[in-house]
Fold this sequence. Notes:
By secondary structure, the chain is α+β, with helices and mostly antiparallel strands. It has one domain (8-174): Pnp Oxidase, Chain A (Roll). Helix content is 19%, strand content 38%. The protein contains five helices and ten strands. β2 and β3 (40-45) form a beta hairpin. The longest helix has 9 residues, at 89-97. The mean pLDDT is 94.
Amino acid sequence: MPQENTGKWVEVSAKDLSFNPFTLIDKEWMLVTVGNPEQHNTMTASWGGFGVLWKKYISLIFVRPQRYSIKFLEQEEYYTLSFFDKQYRQALAYCGSHSGREVDKDKETGLTARFDLPAPYYEQARIVFVCRKIHGQTLDPSGFLDHAIDPENYPQKDYHKMYIGEIIQVMMKED
């Protein structure tokens, strides 16, 4: 079991953050977590983004229709994006390769879900973005300008649903 990240949570301003979003999402991965204390799910993601849209700081997440998390994303108003230190890589790999329909990911990974923010997140994370859904839409392949995208990424035609979330809170672990 990896050593716990035991720092104190502090709220920080999104505009004051300094990180490489390409490395953070593509190389380090994130957990997208949604639900409530009675039932929640998390999934590992390495596709997504951060930016500014409609005068808001936003996150972009993409979820295939067969993922268990889609049910929760459709029901709930908020989701979190949690980023971890390297020692949690195995837990993130597990959460990305097992369905919450069949296993209790928290139990299997030893991650501790917390429910004191508008959406669940994990105690072991080092940074958490709390996001309020402001748009959701399934990707339309007729909009792909690069025609290689569809056959390379969607051989089963299971197009991702994109969610845009307003970042309403950022929490970081203080050492």
